[in-house]
Specification:
The chain is an all-beta fold and 191 residues long. The chain is built from no helices and 16 strands. Strands 2, 4, 6, 7, 9, 10 and 12 form a seven-stranded mixed sheet that branches. The chain has a five-stranded mixed sheet with strand order 5-8-3-1-11, with no helix packed on it. The chain has a two-stranded antiparallel sheet with strand order 13-16.
Length: 191
C-alpha cells in the first residue's frame, strides 16, 4: 500500500475519505501480515461532532459479524467509539492476504466542515493474540474523513421571463435554473 513502510508487524490500515457535507463516507479497514490471528479486541474512535456513525458493512473475516461490534452510544459504549471483539472459534488461527479489507465503517458527514481521524483509542488496550495466545506486535495507520463544502450555488443566466398577457394581469413568470450548493435553500421573491 502506498506510503506505508514495509514491516513484519501486523498492520491495521484505515482509508482516507473526502466527502461533502451531508454525504455518506465508508472507511475501509484493511490489514497486512494478518497471520495466525486467534482473537482481537479494540476500540475505534472518531469525532462525533464531524461525522455520524451509520453502519458496518462488507465484513470479510471468518466468524466476524455485526454482533462483533459495539455501536457508539449503546450500553456502556461512548459516542465516538466503536468496540470490536472477535475470536476464532476454531482455535486454529486465521490468516488473510495482505491488503484484505476486513470491513468498512460507514458515516454521514455532518453540516460542519472539518476532519475526523479514524483510529484506535489510546486510552483502551488493543488486544491481538496469535494461535499460541501470545500478543501480536501491531501498527496502526489512522485514516480520516474530510468534510468539504459542496460546489457553490449557481443561478443560471439568463432567466426565462414570460410577460403578463395584459396590464394588471397575474399570469407572468420568471424561470431560473439553479445548480450546485449543498444543504437546504429557500427562495423569496419580492417586487
Amino acid at each position: 500500500i502506498d506510503g506505508i513502510a514495509p514491516t513484519t508487524d501486523l498492520q491495521f490500515i484505515f482509508s482516507n475519505e473526502t466527502v461533502q457535507q451531508g454525504d455518506a463516507a465508508c472507511v475501509e479497514f484493511s490489514v497486512n501480515n494478518f497471520d495466525d490471528v486467534l482473537g482481537m479486541q479494540y476500540v475505534m474512535t472518531y469525532d462525533p461532532t464531524i461525522i455520524r456513525y451509520d453502519s458496518i458493512r462488507n465484513i470479510n473475516l471468518e466468524q466476524l459479524n455485526a454482533s462483533s461490534f459495539g455501536e457508539p452510544g449503546v450500553g456502556n459504549n461512548q459516542p465516538g467509539e466503536i468496540i470490536l471483539s472477535w475470536f476464532d472459534q476454531t482455535v486454529s488461527g486465521v490468516t488473510v492476504t495482505d491488503g484484505t479489507i476486513l470491513y468498512e465503517v460507514c458515516f454521514t458527514a455532518l453540516p460542519e466542515t472539518g476532519t475526523s481521524a479514524i483510529t484506535f483509542s489510546t486510552s483502551d488496550a488493543i488486544e491481538i493474540i496469535d494461535v499460541n495466545e501470545d500478543p501480536i506486535v501491531n501498527q496502526i495507520v489512522p485514516g480520516t474523513v474530510n468534510i468539504t463544502t459542496g460546489p457553490p450555488l449557481v443561478l443560471a443566466s439568463p432567466a426565462v421571463i414570460t410577460a403578463v398577457s395584459c396590464t394588471g394581469g397575474n399570469d407572468g413568470a420568471i424561470d431560473i435554473a439553479i445548480s450546485g450548493g449543498s444543504g437546504t435553500y429557500s427562495y423569496a421573491w419580492s417586487f
